[in-house]
Specification:
It is built from two helices and three strands, in the order ββαβα. It is an alpha+beta fold. The protein has one domain. The termini are far apart. This is DUF8149 domain-containing protein. InterPro entries: DUF8149. Pfam families: DUF8149.
């Protein structure tokens, strides 16, 4: 993994695992895990705390919090 590329935490509550993968590999890693371990059911996901933080940053950048 390149040290220049950010890594993203992936969690699977059913397997009780957490790993980090390069940002460019997130979609493939999730698909590979969920297909191989959970018959394609979307169990593993990007860490929910990170998803919430990113959503807040995007909303702020788009000005969605202004006037609220």
């Amino acid at each position: 993994m390149s040290t220049d590329e950010p890594s993203v935490p992936i969690v699977c509550t059913e397997c009780e695992t957490e790993t980090r993968v390069p940002l460019s590999d997130v979609a493939d890693a999730l698909t590979r895990h969920n297909d191989g371990k959970h018959d394609g059911e979307e169990i593993a996901e990007v860490d929910p705390a990170l998803k919430d933080q990113l959503a807040d940053l995007v909303a702020e950048d788009l000005g969605l919090f202004e006037g609220a």
